[in-house]
Predict the structure.
Amino acid sequence: MTVPALNNWQSVQDEVVRRIHGGVWNQGDLIPNEADLAREFGCARATVNRALQSLADSGLLDRRRKAGTRVAMLPVRKATLEIPLIRKEICDKGHTYGYAQVTRRRVPSPARLASKMNLPRGTKLLHLLCVHSADAKPYVIEERWINPDAVPAVEGVDFSQISPNEWLLKHVPFSAGDIAFFAMSADQPVADLLECEVGEGLFVIDRSTRRDTQAITSVRLIFAPGYRMHTVLSLPT
Amino acid sequence: MTVPALNNWQSVQDEVVRRIHGGVWNQGDLIPNEADLAREFGCARATVNRALQSLADSGLLDRRRKAGTRVAMLPVRKATLEIPLIRKEICDKGHTYGYAQVTRRRVPSPARLASKMNLPRGTKLLHLLCVHSADAKPYVIEERWINPDAVPAVEGVDFSQISPNEWLLKHVPFSAGDIAFFAMSADQPVADLLECEVGEGLFVIDRSTRRDTQAITSVRLIFAPGYRMHTVLSLPT
DNA sequence: GAGTGGTCTAGACCACTGT
DNA sequence: CAGTGGTCTAGACCACTCC
């Protein structure tokens, strides 16, 4: 009656999911350890490990050394968002990309940013206001602050030709950071730039990035009405 | 001169990232194959594989059989969002959780949902309108549609005691789906429920889940003003 | 066809942590 | 202290895909 030997980690994963779905293992239950499962499934422990680790990443299992592996009590859903280059996002949708720099200034770092970006007092930042458009209609406002101490080369860049979004991705790639999503109501200046009504609800992304502990840049993206960011909730079966 | 042997996958990953940062390998470049790197680093190929696979998951590398491994041209940023139980989210913030069901009806599936949830024509859905609150202030509106064909047990549940959000998570866990984030302006009924101004910009999440191909539930979460969803952009150093 | 990443195995040692 | 997951190794075979 033994199962016909699960010889790859995907089939092991499927079997584990099946047992959870089927109620063989319930939320909070301790499941057998890797060695036992490997013996039962007729495969190597590394294969079981790979399968369970993948499920733990998905949030279905909680694993701790010595304590063993449990079915997660509250299976936290995880969604992976891909945050593309704005130009690419617009082109991929089949629209014509447009871009314009609105203002460029050097400013003392605003208090709100100084703390968020962990900047020394009195740091001067480069502040840019730009608009990306799709088929000549405003698509998103990019309000950008850049720490010139972290990116000296930025002083010589002409951001009327290339957006900070794109330049930074090419020249300062691979940094860590944090990101927040929320909504705001359009005020007059924003409404003017996005050609929408004052008060309209807009989708906003705030993002700060740094390398090691040095703040590189902070950006606020304010999207035109109608924008939707979507992705897939991928859980095994 | 040789590096002191990278004997774990994290250090291999760090070294690869260092070489990309340092310009040893540039965007679009083909990097050496796993066997060569393993020899150079003085570790097993599996260790290199683990490191590179992790970097590919992060979007820094593009890997294809036979074609080899390249530094990604447009390093797509990936953010992982955890979508918690609403009650848990509120409690974790240290607030008192409150919940109320506003309405409960059986309705023909609206056209918009019928297509999104891929329902047969004429399917009747259970429609619920609920409000979750934090410290007695409205926190989020949960507008929920449930397909009773997929979850027959739902007919007997008293959703004035437990939110659909929580009941479904406990009883219909582990399903796939898709999710979208956007902003809307509060209309009168929404403003009444959230105790905010009409027209105010609100953060909204639409989510549909299914098991296999059968639609289970669709939900719209409309958050009170001020809500921010945030996460970390985790890229290796 | 040949070269690359993807995976499996069997065994080993280590790191963490509950008891 | 002892049991569990986390990882490494050396070798092997397979699957994909570019040429």
Chain A touches chain B through 59 residues (CB under 8 Å). The two ends of chain A are 24 Å apart (CA to CA). Residues 33-35, 45-46, 49, 52-53, 63-69 of chain A lie near DNA strand D (CB under 10 Å from a C1'). Helices of chain A lie at 9-21, 34-41, 45-58, 86-92, 111-116, 164-171, 188-194.
